[in-house]
Design a protein that fits this description.
mainly alpha, two-stranded antiparallel ribbon, about 5% strand, about 90 residues
Amino acid sequence: MGSHVLGRPARLLAGAAPEGPGFRVCFGNPEFDAAAHAALDAGEDAWPRLLDALVHWRPLHEDHIAPIALLADPRAARLITPERGRELLAGSRG
């Protein structure tokens, strides 16, 4: 896999400041990324919309079993309690 993580150079993870202007966490494949970002922008409806977005998630490699990139975004990380994390893992994914 070399120096790429989620299809982007690893230097983006090492050198980018998450709070910097224009920074946006990539959650995976384009369909899931768009759906997850839209869900997180939905305010109080974010959690059910994030669960609905899982139908668009696709693994990026054989060891990718869940959309763990969600934890890199503070908005998503705050939503994912231990119970919700289990719900996320138990649900059907792309």
